[in-house]
């Protein structure tokens, strides 16, 4: 069971049992365009990490997400996705690949003004140097007749502890104003 | 990087009797995201639905959503456009759990996006969805209802707030 889900259920029983177990590490909130966001010097004191993403781009029709760990640009990533576009289910996967990938992930120019994507990525056991790193991600947006929802499992095939996460539009365009990415640490 | 306690219970309630709907109101605007956990059932095999708003819930056709679902050996995707009472997930007399993540719910510069995942024991259905309320108003009211039937007594609603650094 995901530690996030365990914590939610525990908090629902009585009081706030999760105090100090789920901590905000850093948040980027854009006041203008940005070609990407990087979390560096991530502390090693947590058990798991969670990224909460609220994104919009300026590329016409939207863009894909490009997520890398520790500045690794090699083909050391893989992912499998189950997605829905409102009419069809769209399972796909790729391995090896150069980054964690979200196909047609977030909205851009041509979608409703003020429309943003939501995405939550859990990075499990990010400090464990005996394991490759596993992620799961739940994401999507709706443009009232367009959009998608996706559930992803992925892997960074490297046993190094994660201390750096970069998130960028795949095709080199920008995230726009009000986009936000927040990094949280979960204690185990 | 700064760190701080950030995951707080805002409110929790258990229905003492079956009801057509349950409303969470006066939601503070001081968090970044909200998480609503619904755990319970309905008096018949129907659906949970939800409206949101500022002061009062929006009953107009200002909602849209993209869905991914699965039951038994079937997987599918659907969509709601110009909806007036958007879908959360399947529900039955057995038990279902749904978790709704409201992203940047109080930001008055953006439309409101939420992600929902859940499952129902009775219908053996899982639901994932992304929805949008086409309003820049901050969400401070959430109404959950059963689509065509009552929410069962004993159903719990717990609202959490997440604060970013």
Outline the low-pLDDT stretches of chain A.
1-18
Largest sheet of chain B: 8 strands, antiparallel
Number of discrete helical segments of chain A: 1
How much of the sequence of chain A is in beta strands?
over 45%
Q: What distance separates the N and C termini of chain B?
A: 9 Å
Instruction: Give the structural class of chain A.
Output: mainly beta
Strand count, sense and closure of the main sheet of chain A?
A: 8 strands, antiparallel
Shape estimate of chain B: globular
Give helix % range of chain A. under 10%
Radius of gyration of chain B: 15 Å
Average pLDDT reading of chain A = 89
Share of residues in strands of chain B: over 45%
Oligomer status: heterodimer
* Topology order of chain A in helix (H) and strand (E) letters: HEEEEEEEEEEEE
Strands across the major sheet of chain A, in which order?
1-12-3-8-9-10-5-6
